[in-house]
Amino acid sequence: MEKKDKQFEERLLEVRRVTRVTKGGRQLAFRAVMVIGDKKGTIGLGIAKSSDVIGAIQKATHDAYKNLKKVPVVGADSVPYLKTFKFKSAIVRLIPAGPGTGLKAGSSVRSVLELAGYNNILSKIIGTNNKLNNALATIYALTMYKSNGFKRDIEKS
């Protein structure tokens, strides 16, 4: 496990207090959303709940390591082509950019793209400001790219 910790960078996206109403009253818990990435085309997202914040973060990190996905990073550390993806009410548009443009993204989309290894990309979030849905929409959009001609670029980085 120590080898993975040095290879991957971890980032906490959100901690939210959630309650469940039962017969005996309200039960308080915390939900943590963690994103991990190696900045070379591998990204993972974990979601977990626990009665304390530290436990939720540890569980979410462990879940993120179990859900690793490869994404294509081509050319000038950008995406291969324009992609718009809808997940629930979150719509994320990823636009390729040339060298020197930088990472122009907001909210959780920025964290996901940074940890995946993108340096030149434009993005737009439409529909919601929910960090979890925006992060999931971004990860699904990145994994939906066809990787036929981009395999060489993924292996190179």
Automatic annotation (TrEMBL):
Keywords attached to this entry: Ribonucleoprotein, Ribosomal protein, RNA-binding, rRNA-binding
Signal peptide: none
PROSITE patterns, per the entry: RIBOSOMAL_S5 (PS00585), S5_DSRBD (PS50881)
Record bears the keyword Ribonucleoprotein: yes
Domain spans labelled S5 DRBM: 8-71
Classification via InterPro entries: Ribosomal_Su5_D2-typ_SF, Ribosomal_uS5, Ribosomal_uS5_C, Ribosomal_uS5_N, Ribosomal_uS5_N_CS, Ribsml_uS5_D2-typ_fold_subgr
Keyword presence, Mitochondrion: no
Record-level GO cellular component terms: ribosome
Chain segments annotated as transmembrane: none
Similarity comment text for this entry: Belongs to the universal ribosomal protein uS5 family.
Designated name of the protein: Small ribosomal subunit protein uS5
Organism the protein comes from: Candidatus Vampirococcus lugosii
